[in-house]
Specification:
Strand content: over 45%
Mean pLDDT: 86
Shape: globular
Radius of gyration: 20 Å
Number of helices: 1
Length: 284
């Protein structure tokens, strides 16, 4: 069949659209010239990190520092090996426009239980995770390896549409392996988000809010999803009278024989703040 020039133009346009929407690359931080997150020479593709569909990985024992502003589609810290991201007064925008592996993952994402990721948000640093497409289930701390997220005083993680999994045995791929991931979150600043699944699928989690810190969830604090192991431990801790933790619901069911979900209250001279549920508290 002969194609007219109009048909040929349409085919070219279609091919361009497919190329433009293809999956982005996984780009490694290599600290080629410094530890600066924003510098092109510090990435394996020698391009500055931008929201072009790529997912940016920090591991291989390296530390990336962000003191300015960067906008990307995905960040993974400590996937197959150790990695650290320090957001020291800077702003990281993560625009989630598609599915896996976009988002914000600390401690494994593609690899099983070999990495360790740490993210420190300090000195007024800010992380904005914006759901612009794909799945809301894109926040992870200790997903398929151990991970830690520390939000310092005056610093903020703002992720209003995001569902987080803190401490998860190994993602959604196959049955539980003979080990699990540990997720640790400490909040002395502000964490605003939709929902926390903690101690998920047999993993361990520890979430602490202290000082003048606040955790605000528009959805559930959920500590009872798909818990496969009796040794599972989920600790939720509030320290002092100035900290706050509120959500729509608090759900903390426990299967027979499991270690109980633990709510800890640590007092200061003014006492201790409560966990607040706007709608319901469900225990079993």
């Amino acid at each position: 069949m002969r194609l007219s020039s109009a048909h040929f133009a349409l085919l070219l346009a279609g091919a361009w659209c497919v190329a433009a929407t293809s999956k982005g690359a996984n780009v490694q931080f290599d600290a080629g010239s410094s530890s600066d997150f924003t510098v092109a020479a510090n990435w394996a593709d020698d391009n500055p990190p931008v929201a072009d569909g790529d997912v940016h990985f920090i591991e291989n024992g390296l530390t990336a520092d962000l003191t300015g502003t960067a906008t990307v589609n995905g960040v993974v810290v400590g996937d197959i090996s150790t990695g650290t991201l320090n957001i020291n007064g800077g702003t990281l925008n993560v625009d989630v426009t598609a599915g896996f592996p976009q988002g914000f993952s600390i401690g494994g994402h593609l690899s099983n239980h070999t990495g360790f990721g740490v993210v420190n948000v300090t000195n007024g640093g800010t992380v904005n995770i914006n759901l612009m497409g794909g799945s809301p289930d894109t926040g992870f701390v200790g997903e398929r390896a151990d991970g830690e997220l520390h939000i310092g005083a005056g610093s903020t993680v703002n992720a209003p549409g995001i569902i987080w999994r803190i401490g998860q045995f190994g993602g959604f791929f196959g049955p539980p392996p003979p080990w699990d991931a540990v997720g640790v979150v400490t909040v002395e600043g502000t964490l605003n988000t939709r929902q926390l699944y903690v101690g998920v699928q047999g993993g361990h989690s520890e979430v602490t809010v202290s000082g003048n810190g606040s955790i605000t969830l528009t959805g559930q604090l959920h500590s009872s999803i798909e818990t496969f192991r009796i040794e599972r431990l989920s600790t939720m801790r509030i320290v002092g009278s100035n900290a706050s933790w509120q959500s729509d619901d608090i759900i903390a069911n426990t299967q027979a024989g499991e270690v109980r979900n633990t709510f800890e209250f640590v007092t200061d001279s003014g006492g201790v703040s409560p966990f607040v549920a706007a709608d319901a508290i469900l225990f079993k």
